[in-house]
Design a protein that fits this description.
With 228 residues, this protein is an alpha+beta fold. The chain is built from three helices and ten strands, in the order ββααβββββββαβ. Strands 1, 2, 3, 4, 5, 6, 7, 8, 9 and 10 form a ten-stranded mixed β-sheet that branches. β5 and β6 form a beta hairpin. α1 crosses α3. It is globular. Its main location: other. It is found in: Cell projection, Cilium, Flagellum; Cytoplasm; Membrane. It holds the Pfam family START. InterPro entries: STARD10_START, START-like_dom_sf, START_lipid-bd_dom, START_lipid_transfer.
Amino acid sequence: AALWGLPPQGGCSLSPQTRISCKDVPAETLYDVLHDTRYRSKWDSNMIETYDIGRLTVNADVGYYSWKCPSPLKNRDFVTLRSWLPLGNDYMIINYSVKHPKYPPRKDFVRAVSLQTGYLIKANGDGACILYYLTQVDPRGSLPKWVVNRVSQFVAPKAMKKIYKAGLKYPEWKRRHDPGYKPWVYPEQNTLPSVSLAELSVQHAESLENIDETGLPEEHLSTSDHEA
């Protein structure tokens, strides 16, 4: 996810912030793209798995997301509380990490922390918008300098371009996949189990495992599409 965030390097925070102008993609379409977990696998090549856990209110839920890191780094996952707010013709989505008793850290992932991540979608004339993204994430661990540089220079900007391209293709895809189903717009469609705020607590990075990956060399970087 994500008011804006992406990973700290051994205690210091890596915080890319980017914006992209999305011609021919209305703000409400991009808002749908960022919400629609069924569509995410079509554009997010870094995603391993994502699903909704439960709802807090009509505009807040808890979800799970696992992220494919470049080899030989270990893959990361998140449990986050996400909230969203339409602001006239603009939209905002933010998230931060929480602890849920039924979704503890898994042995096959490093549990990372979204300190705060956000998207701001601003309408920009007729049928266009500007997407702003800011993230501050602690990936838990001391990362090699080449990873920090790569994320700052390549990963976030390429991800923004993918979201834009996804926005161009979404209307046609949605027409063929339950076009009336948008629980983020129509809360009466939401069938997720209710989650009580009392079940959750803020996920503090210090309470999670901290691993040292600073010695991993760049030449062993996987050629998978992790940068896109």
